[in-house]
């Protein structure tokens, strides 16, 4: 299979996450009115999805190492589709929160499988390049998601958005069955004891360099997640943007991420992924501080939107390089390492975004302050990333040489 076709198929799979997060954002006001709650309460349905998405990966990752990527991936797609249909029937915030949690469990199986499949085939700079290519494909989803949601709202009521999510999961399942997994050999027989599902996590947790990259990704991702959680409030309520303009602004942010992914693939030919990662974290921090200054000074919508394009663009560079580096040291535990990365990223990111909803005071300032804290912490971890990576690679090489001599 060609690299491009492989990336497109995996990109379609990963796109389930952005669709689940972004497609229903334009419907927040309608959902709030229909369920009789305020916008921050609807925002918590996003936070609980992200939190559950993270925690479930802790189980799904080791299971994919033990029983194979295919079983875990297709199980997740079925759960995601079924929960999406139930969300379309939700008549209260409580039921919506409950089914979003179940939907996240299915999404977690998809999210954890893709990085593990990539790590099964590639490593090092090649992994970073492939993750960038997958990122370019999957970033079409966040660009289309609000527009799809707005279009469905124009023709139907908000439950149609969740019916669309169920249909998309079904299409992905059929496509993967026919184009990705057909003809592959059956999964190998399980020979490792069950307790390794837990002890393998200790192996990853003890690896200081990998944990550094996990911290970077969690904090950098939280910057964007906090904004997404409050995007309807900031763009539609605070600045008065229409549904159409809201979709356009989101598309501009995604365009920045796509451009950064293309640039990243070129930079990888010359620079090591850790150095690109550190630079991207620094640019993201400057953009968030510029956003903070704009909010304090009462700047207009255009200034805020430009800052968010830069912030999103940096994330498009940070994530592929960071995932590749975090998984580099675990060729046989790709699912476990990927699960810990995803669990930390989404669970802590969900907690941070949920906390930001409680701090909301009717202005964007507390929201941007939380974003500033996250990006500066990510920059602090990234500052030593190149050196930490080099030392870890040297130790890995020394360990392999010692084992070889024995």
- Categorize the overall geometry: globular
CATH topology category name: Growth Hormone, Chain: A
Radius of gyration: 20 Å
Q: Report strand %.
A: under 5%
What is the CATH superfamily label? MFS general substrate transporter like domains
Terminal CA distance: 38 Å
- CATH architecture descriptor text: Up-down Bundle
Succession of helices and strands: HHHHHHHHHHHHHHHHHH
| Helix run count | 18
Give the tally of β-strands: 0
GO cellular component, one term: plasma membrane
Domain Major facilitator superfamily (MFS) profile: 1-389
InterPro entries: Efflux_drug-R_Bcr/CmlA, MFS, MFS_dom, MFS_Efflux_Transporters, MFS_trans_sf, Sugar_transporter_CS
Transmembrane segments: 46-64, 71-90, 96-118, 130-154, 160-181, 213-233, 245-264, 276-295, 301-319, 339-359, 365-385
Structure write-up:
- α6 (93-121) runs antiparallel to α16 and α11 runs antiparallel to α18 (385-405).
- The chain has 18 helices and no strands.
- The protein has a single domain (3-181, 206-389), classed as MFS general substrate transporter like domains (Growth Hormone, Chain: A, Up-down Bundle).
- It has helices at residues 3-14, 16-22, 28-35, 39-67, 69-87, 93-121, 124-138, 140-155, 159-180, 196-205, 208-229, 231-238, 243-267, 273-296, 301-327, 334-359, 365-382, 385-405.
- It is an all-alpha fold and 406 residues long.
- Residues 1-389 form the Major facilitator superfamily (MFS) profile domain.
- The chain crosses the membrane at residues 46-64, 71-90, 96-118, 130-154, 160-181, 213-233, 245-264, 276-295, 301-319, 339-359, 365-385.
- One of its GO terms (cellular component) is plasma membrane.
